[in-house]
Amino acid sequence: MNSTPPRVTVGRGPVSEADVVAVARHGAGVELGSDALAAIAEARAIVDALAHDVKPHYGVSTGFGALASVHIPLEQRVQLQRSLIRSHAAGSGPEVEREVVRALMLLRLSTLATGRTGVRTETATTMAALLDAGITPVVREYGSLGCSGDLAPLAHCALALLGEGDVRDAAGNLRESADAMREVGIEPIEPAEKDGLALINGTDGMLGMLLLACHDFDMLLRCADLTAAMSVEAMLGTDRVFAADLQALRPQPGQAVAAANMRALLANSPIVASHVGPDCTYVQDAYSMRCAPQVAGAARDTLAHARTIAGYELASAVDNPVVTIDGRVESNGNFHGAPVAYVLDFLAIAVADLASISERRTDRMLDVARSRGLPPFLAHDAGVDSGHMIAQYTQAAIVSELKRLAVPASVDSIPSSAMQEDHVSMGWSAARKLRLALDGLTRVLAVELLTAARAIDLRAPLQPGPATGAVVAALRETVPGPGQDRFLSREVEAAVEFIRSGAAVAAANSALPQPLQGVSAEH
């Protein structure tokens, strides 16, 4: 059965987060809609008329950046656009992930489709053809300051449209662009006035990474509710603090969702029921358990805000200059990445804190003085065996790194282009570190899940609730239960994949009347 997602049609309206994930991560094909083609042609007619105007127009008949005052003769304008792309494709460092490059190409195409950039129709259709054929330009890690958009990353993509530079074909092989295009029947473009600038002047790289991060963080938030619930069971904690009326006393929307998820996950748990009577001496749980909805809820609200900003950006036509609705060609500052950079940094803070509270729950399960009857480090034979002692070290190392990654990139700025571009957003850098942070959070949650599952097994003959029990059972298909010390790294990596693939949340959902709630992706 073919599992390839359906093709995404790029029209005059904005693409969605789901479209970006489908094209970037799952290889969905791309085509331009007829309304987009009409809008592109209409705006292009305006640029063509200005090309012969004696008055200079930025991006059409002038140089760029600090060279904007240099008038370019008509016979040199093709070379102007080609030189722009070649010179700006100056990135350095490791290759950026394929999904990021495909996301930024789709988002640039979406802006071209608005008809506000003045690009030629054949330029836009060639970019769509590259995406559709699975040809991915090689983009380097470093080069974007996040103002005038993601210039260097987008220039590497634009270079491929010229039939120059390196690409990866659909099979992932490193190829010369011209060769890969020829093989699938795509002709390189000959850039005309405004083409080069329209291809490189946008916030598409940082926005693409934001959208992918929002998609991933949404799943990890549901998983954080799951691991927290499992830890509450493992620690003989109470679910009374998650009651709806208590949560309603502080009407934070994300908190209400997180608490509702935890109530559902802990419903009908024999472990929880075992200590609700008058003989229970535990007065209240530690903050890392009791306040789980407050922390995960705040992270949810941060994600909701980030999705709102992403929605505004998806509806934008980011270029400079732009062709206005009434036919003017005007310079502007909409390429500045501050709105996107801020929320990328906000998310990195939320990710770090969510990982921090997860690590604290794990540490509590391993400490015989605080674990309410569990063996030291959950070891089979403490002293001979070390159990999950060093798995928590791994968590601690990651959490420490996440705190460094939470330092905002957007508060930095460094001037460029002979002080013409004297304030920049560093949004690309914010996006790159957020991707690292989300990987770290996945690993921290995996260790908590692995540890809580082992602790729940050690509570036998008491049994977990249906939902958490389904998660433990699904994990046990690849990771065995308690016993003597084993090669633990392999089991940690299996738990990482269990979370990253969505299998952990799916297992919980299989035993719930309603699936765990995420954060709405509607804008």
TrEMBL record:
It catalyses: L-histidine = trans-urocanate + NH4(+). Keywords: Histidine metabolism, Lyase. SUPFAM superfamilies: L-aspartase-like. CDD domains: PAL-HAL. One of its GO terms (molecular function) is histidine ammonia-lyase activity. Belongs to the PAL/histidase family. This is Histidine ammonia-lyase. It comes from Mycobacterium dioxanotrophicus. The lineage of its organism: Bacteria, Bacillati, Actinomycetota, Actinomycetes, Mycobacteriales.
